[in-house]
Amino acid sequence: MSKIAHFNHDFTQQLAYAKNSNFADRMLAWFHKYGRCDLPWQQHKLTTPNPYPVWISEVMLQQTQVATVIPYFYRFIHSFPTVFALADADWEQIADHWAGLGYYARARNLHKGAKQLTHIIETTGDFPKTVNDWQTISGVGQSTAGAIVAMGVRDFGVICDGNVKRVLTRWAGIDSDINKSATTQKLWQLASLLTPKQNSGLYAQAIMDLGATLCTKARPNCAFCPIQDDCIANQQGKQTAYPVKSKKSPKPSKYSLVLQLTDSKQQTLWLQRPNSGIWSGLYCLPLAFIKKQQAHKTITTWQNLADCQDKHLPNEYLPIEQLIVNFLQQQHLLNLTQADSLFTLQPKPIKHSLTHFHWHLLPIIIDLSDKQKQDLLTQIQSANLNTNTIWLTPNASKTLAMPTAMQKILPN
Question: Which coenzymes or cofactors are required (predicted)?
Answer without folding.
Answer: [4Fe-4S] cluster
